[in-house]
Design a protein that fits this description.
It is built from three helices and two strands. It is of the alpha+beta class. Strands 1-2 form a two-stranded antiparallel sheet. The protein is elongated, with a radius of gyration of 18 Å. The two termini are about 25 Å apart.
Length: about 110
Amino acid sequence: MRKIVQKLEHYRTLSFSILFHEDRYFKLAHDVAFDSREVHSYRNNFEALLSDITKWKAKNYRIIFVSASVTRAKRLADNLMNHDVACFFSEDEERVLSEKRGHGNDRTTARRF
């Protein structure tokens, strides 16, 4: 295990964990926590999804949907855009998103890893 960790230390590494724990192998440069949930409750209820998205956007939430199916992801993005929800679908792993916030020069950047 130590050899693998040593090799990984030469790269910028991103780690996801469901449960918080003290990592015994890696030195963490940043620790970020976020809330998430599965969206099974929206199955066959697109109007409920639109309603929740509207509420989240009003609270300035940023929403990310992850799908194992490219076809479903594209269909969801198309359906949301048809209901005036600003969104996109991308398979481009190098795409960098920048959004100007407020009146200052603050930027929020996201990249698919």
